[in-house]
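Human: I would love a firmer grasp of how sequence relates to backbone shape in proteins. Could you go through the record with me and say what the backbone is doing? Here is the record:
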Amino acid sequence: MKFRPLHDRVLVRRLETDERTAGGIIIPDTAKEKPMEGEVLAAGPGGRTDDGRLVPMGVKAGDLILFGKWSGTEVKIDGEELIIMKESDILGLIEKKKK
């Protein structure tokens, strides 16, 4: 795939969630909510201020993020459903626990 987001946009792949509840009940596809966690696949160079200075991105490819339920625009690239969103739609980074 050759796709490079522009400005302060990021390309995100949703992370799949568990299909069972904590009690072991299987959740059908029609009752599932779309996950709000994802992995950044690509990020643009950053936004620009009013005077033209580049503001670098706070995320990079490989980061795990949390985003709003209705954030971004869903697109299909190479048969895979992905999301393009502005960096401001990202609520935060998910840090992996160190063992």
Summary: The beta strands are 9-14, 37-43, 46-48, 54-56, 64-67, 73-77, 80-86, 90-93. The first strand starts at residue 9 and ends at 14. Residues 12 and 40 are 5 Å apart (CA to CA). DSSP finds no helices and eight strands in the chain.
